[in-house]
Amino acid sequence: QLHDFIGRESSHALRDRLECGARYAISRVGRENGFFGDPKLKIGLPKNFARAEKFLRSMGYGKKVDDLVLAMNRAAESASPNAKELVIDSIKRMTVSDAKAILTGGDNAATEYFRKSTEAKLAETLMPVVKSVTEKSDLARSYNNLSGTLAKFGVKSEQSTVESYVNKKALDGIYQRIGEEERNLRANPSQYAGSVLGKVFGLMK
Hints:
The chain is mostly helical. It contains eleven helices and no strands. Helix 5 crosses helix 10, helix 6 runs antiparallel to helix 8 (109-137) and helix 8 runs antiparallel to helix 10 (162-187).
């Protein structure tokens, strides 16, 4: 019955809600402290740095560690707004079949759709922005200096470059925020009472 009910109208309603949610999610991460001020998304030290943080601080690298963490988060915040166009475009290209799969899928079906349809291109799009910020903040040099210090003691870098590390963390944060908006959409079907989307959620129950 649900599959029969889901048509163009309900698909359009779903696309509208997903677009609103995606815009809000990206606006939250793509601003100052969108990453740095959020404990769930804050980009921390790469694993090799984190394991050696106490050692680095004892060696007088405390300020470099703090500057590195702040700069990585600022780079992600600066790059994130560039995700909006790609994500919105993927929503506009969503077919009725895609909508059916999302509505009848799990709690993160829409987020998985976004990740599958945008991640590769989004990684390419964010990288130049991440690089421009890291170069301005001297982040890359700090990262390389710390990597070099740890390498002397046999600790290898987690990522070959700080840009690749920040880019990956920025992508994870964007999709995590979109996922939260999707769960909010599914968790409160009563907010769509009387609408086509409300009827779809009603049938799902």
